[in-house]
Specification:
Strand content: 25-35%
Distance between the termini: 26 Å
Structural class: alpha+beta
Number of helices: 3
Order of helices and strands: HEHEEEEEEHE
Number of strands: 8
Length: 131
């Protein structure tokens, strides 16, 4: 697998399209941090890290609106790829839908959202957009 983050986002995207309640994804430290951010920002309902298998798994419970049966995640877009890394300084961090969505960055201080990186005045690699 050349791009584990794209695989993570694709598994989430596919589970949302077929209205699954839970999706299981192979774990890594970066994927765990992205999952924590998605939970903190209210895009997923819950998550659980398990140590079964070679590297462990992440079980993610997706969040749906009970009335309309619509998922809280509308789009997941991979921005930086292994073939073309996209870096942004603290002044050039893109805002997603004028602040309605989030951009997830990998910085020297760890994985964080675009708003947190702007507040700390640090830039980094823009991993993905979520809205």
């Amino acid at each position: 697998m050349t791009d584990p983050i794209a695989d993570y986002l694709t598994r989430l995207r596919n589970a949302i399209k077929v209205n699954h309640r839970v999706v299981e994804i192979p774990a890594s430290n970066l994927k765990k941090e992205i999952t924590k951010i998605l939970h903190d920002k209210g895009y997923i309902l819950n998550y659980k890290f398990t140590d079964e298998g070679y590297q462990g798994t992440i079980k993610i419970a997706l969040k749906y609106d009970p009335v309309n049966k619509v998922n809280s995640i509308k789009k997941l877009i991979r921005y930086s790829t292994p073939g073309l890394r996209q870096y942004a300084g603290h002044k050039d961090i893109p805002s997603v839908l004028n602040g309605l969505g989030i951009a997830i960055l990998s910085t020297s201080k760890g994985v964080m959202t675009d708003k947190e990186a702007r507040n700390l005045n640090i830039g980094g690699e823009v991993l993905c957009f979520v809205y």
